[in-house]
Each structure stands twice: as C-alpha cells, then as structure tokens.
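Problem 3 from the worked examples.
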Amino acid sequence: MPRSPGRKPYHYEMFNQQIGEIRSLLHILEMRDGLDEAANRPLLDIYETGEGVILEFDLPGFKLEDISLKVCGLMLMLDAYKPREATDGGLICMERHFGRFHHAVHIPGNVDPCSITAEYRRGVLRVVCPKTGELQVPIKEITIE
C-alpha cells in the first residue's frame, strides 16, 4: 500500500511523543544511578493548599539561565548547574556545593501539568502546581481476547 505524502497520522505523533518522554525518564534514571542519593540534590519543601501543591527548592547563588525545570508524565524534574567559584587564597574549608544538581519529584495525578508555573527569587525556586479537581492520569480497561 503506497504511503500518502503529507502529515503523519495523529497516533504516530502521540507515539513519538510518548517514546521521547520514556527516553527522557530513562536518561534521568541513568544519571541518578551514578549519583549518591543525597549528593548535589537541592533541599525541597512541599506543601498543599486548597488550590494546589507548592514546591520550593533552595538554589542559592544560581543564575536563572542555569536552571531547567520540566514535567515528564507525573514527574517534575529539576536540573541546575552552578560553577565552582575561583578563590584567591588557599582553601581551608569547603561546605558549599557546586556542579550539577538534580531532583525528580512525583507530582499528584490531580495536578494540571499545563498550568504549572515557577518563579525564582532570593535563591528559592517556587513551583506552583494547580489542582484540577479530578484525577488526570488516564486509566483504560483493556479487553482480553
């Protein structure tokens, strides 16, 4: 059967999008395996209000362009980078972290991923995840033949 030129069918686009999300999640899991569980992981507070779920990450000294935040399925992924600062003298003590930072957080299914907003002020990244009221995770019954 000859293929018709033009746009791919919708189900191919959906499939390719889902494959891209799976690859992204696998990449993040591979990166997490190489790190100690608490190494270079920013501190996080999560609380719930009547309108949504609020996440606050401590990211002091980061530049806005070095912070990346994305949603993959029901996971919110934070990746950030802070370069090591040059010092004039000899180092006596080093307690502040530098390098790559990563944190993956499971978000509830009743959050609308398209409405998530974020702002970065005074070293704190505040992510607001508004609730939709109903569960957004698709559940489908599969008939067995």
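Problem 4, a separate protein:
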Amino acid sequence: MAGALDLLRAAGLPERLVIDASHDNSGKDHRRQPLVAADVAAQLAAGQRGVVGIMLESFLEPGRQDLDPTRELEYGRSITDACLGWAQTADVLDDLATAVRARRATLRTPA
C-alpha cells in the first residue's frame, strides 16, 4: 500500500486507494478476504488516511458454483468468482467500521 501511495504522490495525484481484498490480494481464495480486510483495518485503526474503500467479493452463500445444465443452481451462490457469504461479510464490515471509528478518534486527538 505504501508503494502505491508513493507513486500517487510522485505523480501529483490524490493519495487515495481502494483496496481489492479479492483476486491477487487474497490469492483468489475467497476465504482469505477477511485476512486482507483485517490487515487493512489494522492500518486504518493506526491512522492510515490513504485508504478510502475496500472491495469484497460477497454474496448470500459462500463459495461459487458451476453452471451445470443437469442440475438446478443453488440460490444465493455465485456462478462467477468465489465469494464470502453474507454472515462473514457482515463480520468483516463490522471490523472495518470499528477500525474507521478508531482512526477518526486518533485524528481528533491533538498530538
């Protein structure tokens, strides 16, 4: 993240990032997205201001399913990328919200 922020600064662009917790950051393993989000949350709580968003692969049910004309699709499970289920997504979002509140408290405290 620091390298990306350095590149933005050097290019004279706003130092703002949206982190993709899926794909390369999680090794395309949807079960690792909460680990990526936890790392981002720790940086937010420590006062990191360059992160303005996070993307999660999320759906109602965890994982993914293949399109198979011989069977019915399972409602709420992705047919594209593997996703977190809703319950785990809600936990991740709660942790991120807690981290943002901690960051805001840190930024309000005089140095």
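Solution to problem 4. The chain has a mean pLDDT of 94. The longest strand covers residues 51-55.
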